[in-house]
Amino acid sequence: MSQLTLQNPVFVAYVIAASIMILKAASMSWLTVVQMIRFKGGYRSPEDLKKTPLNPAPHPEQLGPNEPVDRSRRIHMNDLENIPFFLAAGLLFVVTDPSLPLAQWLLYGYVVTRLLHFLAYLSAQIHEIRAALWTPGSLIILFMASRALMVAVSH
Amino acid sequence: MSQLTLQNPVFVAYVIAASIMILKAASMSWLTVVQMIRFKGGYRSPEDLKKTPLNPAPHPEQLGPNEPVDRSRRIHMNDLENIPFFLAAGLLFVVTDPSLPLAQWLLYGYVVTRLLHFLAYLSAQIHEIRAALWTPGSLIILFMASRALMVAVSH
Amino acid sequence: MSQLTLQNPVFVAYVIAASIMILKAASMSWLTVVQMIRFKGGYRSPEDLKKTPLNPAPHPEQLGPNEPVDRSRRIHMNDLENIPFFLAAGLLFVVTDPSLPLAQWLLYGYVVTRLLHFLAYLSAQIHEIRAALWTPGSLIILFMASRALMVAVSH
């Protein structure tokens, strides 16, 4: 019997957590776009200095560092380092048939701490706060993957 | 009943779209390699300046910016920001049991616009063209993840 | 019948390989953290220069290049370029119902070469050694995705 169906409440919890995290990560591109439009900079390609309707007065500094855009990119990068592995570890974890409360704590706990981490990073909180909000998510990924490994090895 | 089998034509469409996108993203590393060999630069690690059979005449500029190699890396980075989330959102979308035509439009539409986006980026088209070819794919990811979220929440 | 259950020994092999690779990639963040603490640098955000209990004597060079931290980030980046696509291609490959020995060779071969690649990159081996250990994994991803594509297209 497959655990990967919506008849399995643990998989339903996974789909909810995973889809929120996908929406979060995919939205980061749009935040970067918004910041590039607001600050007219933080571009990356030489062709972005061509005169176009959206960039009527190009100048070379537009390719240089731009803190608001770079911040959005750093947050995005942090998502790329974490969320794909959450998505994969969560799926493997569902297959190990965990109890529903454990699954909900881990999956929803991941979502909540990642969203708080985003707010802390966006508002430039000190590193200690960012780290405290990043750590639970990383431990959840490591725990889910370790459990999947142990269950599979002993199968 | 699991939707994640090749007896389900929606899943077949997903496997086709997903495998093409994996081939595309994994090929970007090879494009970067080709450009590094052609332009003998765009390297990243100090040890890449050691004299070896493949780099018989090393010089420090090989670690500096190199537009053809950097362009390949930027396209690759754009893939990393998008394709893993397409792969995950598409899988969750299949589980929501969409109609086959809707699934084919979204999954194959994603593939087509991503391949066109690649050609536009590689040939250094202006940002407006790149953006126009990136946007449909991003909206498809957001739509598929939103639908998965709504279906799971109402389950 | 779903192939994605632990009753399928090919899927068991996938879960073992995938969970090891997730643990590997997720551990890279911790290696970067360890290097940042050891070398008190390689930071990225302006707010990381604020005086805090973990950074009692901040100075601007902490935001500049820092080879040990940057090396950890480069290895991590290489993981992001490869492992998510291994995770996805491996899952699609399982669905094509390969023989168990073929699946074990490809899945465990990927894990072994990626771990050796990590050791080569961490110890700054020349590019030729790094490339020789990266190439098998990339070819395994391309092979698994190609097989999934061919099986799905002919379905």
Structure description:
The structure is a homotrimer of 155-residue chains. With 155 residues, the first copy, chain A, is an all-alpha fold. In chain A, 71% of the residues lie in helices and 0% in strands. Chain A has 4 helices and no strands. The first copy, chain A, has helices at 9-39, 67-95, 100-122, 127-153. In chain A, helix 1 runs parallel beside helix 3 and helix 2 runs parallel beside helix 4 (127-153). The longest helix of chain A has 31 residues, at 9-39. The relative contact order of chain A is 0.14. The model of chain A has no long low-confidence stretch (mean pLDDT 97). The interface between A and B is medium-sized, with 35 and 35 residues.
The secondary-structure element order of chain A is HHHH
Helix content of chain A: over 70%
Shape category of chain A: elongated
Distance between the termini of chain A: 16 Å
Poorly predicted ranges of chain A (pLDDT <50, ≥5 residues)?
A: none
Largest sheet of chain A: none
Q: Please identify the oligomeric state.
A: homotrimer
Mean pLDDT of chain A: 97
| Extended strand count of chain A | 0
Contiguous helical run count of chain A: 4
Strand content of chain A: under 5%
Radius of gyration of chain A, whole Å: 20 Å
Largest interface, with counts of residues having CB < 8 Å to the other chain, equals:
A-B, 35 and 35 residues
Strand and helix map with partners:
The structure is a homotrimer of 155-residue chains.
Chain A: H1 9-39, H2 67-95, H3 100-122, H4 127-153
Helix pairs in contact in A: 1-2, 1-3, 2-3, 2-4, 3-4
